[in-house]
Design brief:
alpha+beta, PH-domain like, seven-stranded antiparallel beta sheet, 3 helices
Length: about 120
């Protein structure tokens, strides 16, 4: 699935990307079947900029730039090795899990590699 998104974004020199699965604890408690409605696609461009869109969006031409100031690492006591992060951008606000559905290459080999890029020096 992620390969489809990157093929559509070839003009932007995408070097990596993944599906961010919604992990909102309140929504998971109220209606867990709706979590997938909030899944995102995050793509990392050659210039290290990040663009985001809802994964279930019918039109993938509306990518939104996301600044690193809007992304923060998050932890879970139940799954301490899992790569969670929070987005504070109003439209995409929430807690997300980096899915194993990744573009794997020399620069990004795992979920932790992506998490490091998302929370680069501005958030450390």
């Amino acid at each position: 699935m992620i390969q489809q998104f990157t093929n559509e974004q070839q003009a932007h020199a995408t070097i990596g990307g993944f599906i961010a699965k919604s992990a909102d604890p309140i929504l998971a408690h109220i209606n867990p079947s709706r979590l997938q409605d909030n899944n995102l696609v995050l793509l990392i461009q050659a210039d290290q900029s990040i663009v985001v869109s809802f994964a279930n969006s019918q039109n993938q031409s509306g990518w939104t730039p996301l600044s690193r100031e809007q992304i923060h690492q998050s932890k879970s006591l139940l799954a301490p090795k899992t790569c969670y992060f929070k987005i504070t951008h109003i439209k995409y606000a929430g807690t997300y899990l980096i899915s194993p559905d990744l573009i794997v290459n020399d620069q990004f080999k795992s979920e932790k590699d992506y998490l490091e890029v998302l929370i680069s020096t501005t958030n450390k």
